[in-house]
Write a structure and sequence with these properties.
- The chain is of the alpha+beta class.
- 29% of the residues lie in helices and 28% in strands.
- The chain folds into three domains: 84 residues, Rossmann fold, CATH 3.40.50; 61 residues, Dna Ligase, domain 1 (2-Layer Sandwich), CATH 3.30.1490.20; 168 residues, ATP-grasp fold, B domain (D-amino Acid Aminotransferase, Chain A, domain 1), CATH 3.30.470.20.
- Strand 9 and strand 10 form a beta hairpin.
- Helix 1 packs across helix 10 and helix 2 packs across helix 3.
- The longest helix has 21 residues.
- The protein binds adenosine monophosphate (AMP).
- Adenosine monophosphate (AMP) binds next to strand 14.
């Protein structure tokens, strides 16, 4: 791919906080960002242009793409047809294969297996009969997840005992699902890998991720030894996945650390909440490295800037604590400019770097 020089316009599908932080990183390198989304959002406040349009509006997508030199996306729940509509005019990076695989839990698990990875025991579920058969095979505890459009613990139902089966099935409303066995993990972690157009890739030190109510609460680096011991195998799997997909940009893979080694959970073909610490905590942030990768520029160092880094999400009313966070010397406060505080909504984050 040719280099997209600074001064060019980068299109971003999606208007959330990931798009916002991508646009800020892009601006620092001299790029303009043009956001395309069905509704305004945090990214629009910091971007050079915004087109409000539906993801199935091929004509509007084409007009948007013609105003950009490259298009990327900040979330994966976009119909592949939207990628095609833009890709007819301009490179869309990462490509369709990354999006289609990561947006579907069964496809990403299959690919992980093909690349030598180990997901939780799982079965595809497309009907009540298949669900009952899968539950009989996997046993309880188990977790039923919609195959698409699940995030932050949404689209999931936990099944502690067979008595929970009816409620779990009702919760997913007959949608295509996967049933997973519960993994007995000691820790959760992610591999944030960035792969350039030349095929070279580099990973960040893996963060230890702690969730509350299915939502990421905290990411910290360096991770405990139990994660460190499994990070090499996990990073090697992420690299194989990225190569197989021909992925360019950041690819995030989430893992469970278990007594038997890393268990692959899921992947995202994009920058990720568990990498927000890299803005102040790494020499080059995940956002800048994604921009560098999709523009064909050399990748930047992923080394830590301090001895330890911790990112804490500000969820719902947590964000009301911003005055105290501003007063903290080593705290870097990020607020996403969302006006309405809702329980479970990611309003911002704070990163603390210990020198
Ligand atoms: P997910 O949306 O798949 O990342 O799931 C959200 C969170 O639920 C994970 O970060 C875990 O804390 C938990 N979880 C999901 N799947 C499993 C599993 N198979 N076994 C144990 N915990 C899980």
């Amino acid at each position: 791919m040719t280099i997209i020089p600074p001064g060019s316009t980068i299109g971003i599908l999606g208007s959330g906080q990931l798009g916002r932080m991508l646009a800020v990183a892009a601006a620092q390198l001299g790029y303009r960002c043009h956001i395309y989304a069905p509704e305004t959002g945090p990214a629009c406040d910091v971007a050079a242009a915004f087109t409000q349009g539906a993801y199935d509006d091929a004509a509007e997508l084409a007009a948007f793409a013609r105003r950009c030199q490259v298009v990327t996306y900040e979330f994966e729940n976009i119909e592949p047809a939207a990628i095609d509509a833009a890709a007819a005019h301009v490179p869309v990076v990462p490509g369709r294969a990354s999006l289609e695989t990561a947006a579907h839990r069964a496809r990403e698990k299959q690919l992980a297996e093909l690349c030598g990875g180990r997901p939780a025991p799982w079965h595809r579920v497309g009907s009540r009969d298949e669900f009952d058969a899968a539950l009989a095979a996997i046993g309880t505890p188990a977790i039923l997840k919609t195959a698409t459009e699940g995030y932050d613990g949404k689209g999931q139902a936990r099944i502690a005992s067979p008595d929970d089966a009816d409620a779990a099935w009702a919760a997913v409303e007959g949608r295509e699902c996967v049933l997973e066995g519960m993994v007995a993990f000691t820790h959760e972690f992610s591999i944030l890998l960035v792969r350039g157009t030349d095929g070279a890739s580099i990973a960040y030190p893996p963060p230890h991720n702690e969730h509350e109510s299915g939502i990421l609460a905290r990411s910290s680096v360096p991770a405990p030894d139990a994660i460190g011991a499994q990070a090499g195998a996990a990073a090697a799997l992420a690299t194989r996945l990225a190569e197989r997909l021909g992925h360019v940009g950041v690819l995030t893979c989430e893992f469970f650390a278990t007594a038997d080694g890393p268990v692959f959970n899921e992947m995202a073909p994009r920058v990720h909440n568990s990498g927000h610490w890299t803005i102040e905590g790494a020499v080059t942030s995940q956002f800048e490295n994604h921009i560098r990768a999709i523009c064909g520029l050399p990748l930047g160092s992923t080394a830590l800037t301090g001895a330890a880094v911790e990112m804490t999400n500000l969820i719902g009313a947590d964000a009301n604590g911003w005055p105290a966070l501003l007063a903290e010397r080593d705290a870097h406060l990020h607020l996403y400019g969302k006006h309405e505080v809702r329980p479970g909504r990611k309003m911002g984050h704070v990163t603390r770097v210990r020198r």
